[in-house]
Amino acid sequence: MKPIDTVSENELQAEVIRILKDAGFTKIYHTYNSQKSEPGYPDILAIRTTDGLMLVLENKTETGKCTKAQLEWLEAFQSIKKYHVAVIRPHDIEDLVNKVRG
Questions:
Q1: Beta-carbon neighbour count of residue 11 at 10 Å?
Q2: Is a pLDDT exceeding 80 seen at residue 58?
Q3: In angstroms, rounded to a whole number, what is the distance separating the alpha carbons of residues 34 and 43?
Q4: Which residues contact 62 (CB under 8 A, 6 or more apart)?
Q5: CATH code, domain with 67
Q6: For a Cys-Cys bond, which of 20, 24, 39, 60 suits 69, CB 3.0-4.6 Å?
Q7: What's residue 46's pLDDT?
Q8: pLDDT tens for residues 19-48?
Q9: Which of 1-5, 61-65, 69-73 has the lowest mean pLDDT?
């Protein structure tokens, strides 16, 4: 087995995804190329539909540190108290505006 302090983020991510799949998570998202994505967005968002568990994970090596943007995203996910799931079409815009303005 490889020493923990030599595990790369890519190796860690592969292991985390394997564990999630083995644990029944059927929806696992990871941005393939983050160059044009929002800075700091977490590495993995995983959903297990059988019990509604969602995990938001940032992978780091043993000595890796989160950036300010990564911490802000993690804090934003931790602050969620309400959520809404929908398909948005052009005719839904007025309803969306009303929903987000409360």
A1: 13
A2: yes
A3: 9
A4: 4, 5, 7
A5: 3.40.1350
A6: 39
A7: 98
A8: 999 999 999 999 888 788 899 999 999 999
A9: 1-5
Cβ within 8 Å of residue 52, ≥6 positions away = none
Smallest CA-to-CA distance from 34 within 64, 62, 7, 9 is with: 9
Structural domain boundaries enclosing 86 = 4-101
**What are the structure tokens assigned to 15, written together?**
């292991």
Nearest-CA neighbor of 8 among 38, 35, 43, 41?
A: 43
10 Å Cβ neighbour count for 15? Answer: 12
**Prediction pTM value:** 0.87
User: What's the structural domain count of the chain?
Assistant: 1
Average pLDDT over residues 40-63: 96
